[in-house]
Automatic annotation (TrEMBL):
Keywords noted in UniProt: ATP-binding, Hydrolase, Membrane, Mitochondrion, Nucleotide-binding, Transmembrane, Transmembrane helix
Signal peptide: none
Keyword Transmembrane helix found: yes
One term of GO molecular function: ATP binding
One GO CC term, this protein: membrane
Main location as per UniProt: membrane
Superkingdom as given in the UniProt entry: Eukaryota
Localization annotation: Membrane; Mitochondrion
Catalytic activity: ATP + H2O = ADP + phosphate + H(+)
Organism: Acropora cervicornis (Staghorn coral)
Protein name: Mitochondrial chaperone BCS1
Domain BCS1 N-terminal: 23-190
SMART domains per the UniProt record, alphabetical: BCS1_N
């Protein structure tokens, strides 16, 4: 039988036609599936960007706080409570919200961002906290979007700390922020003898403004712009190796109260009083014949918070004053 007749007979066979049709449909579906997988892979590669931020990274908490600020309508949150009990017994608490583990969505600069916060069962042996990761996925092609997010998160975090004192505690090999930033005390609230505050401040500024000078002499192992303040009531009991030159650069004795300090402290506690009254207070304290400590002076003022005249008249009063005659310091 010629080949042309064989093909014609097969084409007229209904069973063969049905089988061929099924094969064609199957091949078409397989090609469609393969094409869709390829298209999805290409879409993820060229149209979606992903950023992973582990909990060990410095920016992790910045990103969490920034996400919280973006997702004002988020209904699934985690809370971190800071509890502090003061020596007076007063309790202060503050609450800090962050996105809970799971998936969150928000829009940033005309791009939809998917946030997934995952928490592993494994824990960090140095801190005891579980491993966590925040993954940001955005429908975009430019990584600049993530740079903008990180910069904005950093700026927001540092803005909360600007002008405030941040305390850290040791957590394994890391330093973790303790509590919330506190308002800085003004420098003039620390009353030292004339010239001491200015001298320390000038030395600190000179150190911070001269990083290259120290780098050229100490090498790459130097601790740039790092200041360590140590205080002691018994300098002679310290190991000489701890306070040798090169390890401790500046030593300053903070002694008993001078006339200038007595004057400044009186004006600090009673700002509406005249300088003449402050001088009278200083004269009376010095007239006792024995220098007093700043702590004694402050304790005396605490007994006469609203009585500037009583603070002067009761100097040397053996019954109520903390500034007494012939008291050992």
């Amino acid at each position: 039988m010629p080949l042309s007749e064989l093909i014609a007979s097969l084409g007229s066979n209904p069973y063969f036609s049905a089988g061929f049709g099924l094969v064609g449909v199957g091949a078409g579906l397989a090609a469609l599936k393969k094409g869709s997988q390829f298209a999805y892979t290409a879409f993820r590669r060229y149209a979606i960007i992903t950023l992973e931020v582990p909990s060990k990274d410095k920016s992790y908490h910045w990103v969490l706080q920034w996400i919280t600020a973006q997702g004002q309508r988020a209904q699934h949150l985690s809370v971190e409570t800071t509890f502090q009990q003061h020596e007076t017994g007063k309790v202060s608490t503050s609450f800090d919200f962050s996105p809970s583990p799971g998936v969150h969505f928000f829009k940033y600069k005309n791009s939809f961002v998917r946030v997934e916060r995952s928490r592993e069962k494994m824990v960090d042996l140095t801190s005891g906290a579980p491993w966590e990761t925040v993954t940001l996925t955005a429908l975009a092609t430019n990584q600049q979007l993530f740079f903008d997010i990180l910069n904005e998160a950093r700026h927001m975090a540092l803005e909360k700390q600007e002008g405030k004192t941040v305390m850290y505690i040791a957590m394994g090999a890391d330093w973790r922020q303790f509590g919330f930033p506190r308002r800085k005390r003004p420098l003039d609230s620390v009353i030292l003898d004339d010239g001491i505050s200015d001298g320390i401040l000038a030395d600190v500024r000179e150190f911070i403004d001269s990083p290259k000078w120290y780098m050229d002499r100490d090498g790459v192992a130097s601790s740039e712009e790092r200041l360590v303040f140590m205080t002691t009531n018994h300098l002679n009991r310290l190991d000489p190796a701890l306070i040798r030159p090169g390890r401790v650069d500046v030593k300053q004795e903070i002694g008993l109260a001078s006339r200038s300090q007595l004057h400044k402290m009186y004006k600090r506690f009673y700002p509406d009083q005249t300088s003449a009254r402050a001088e009278e207070f200083a004269d009376r304290v010095i007239g006792l014949g024995q220098r007093k400590s700043i702590a004694q002076i402050q304790g005396h003022f605490m007994l006469f918070k609203n009585d500037p005249s009583g603070a002067i008249e009761n100097i040397g009063n053996q019954d109520i004053s903390l500034i007494k005659m012939n008291e050992l310091d």
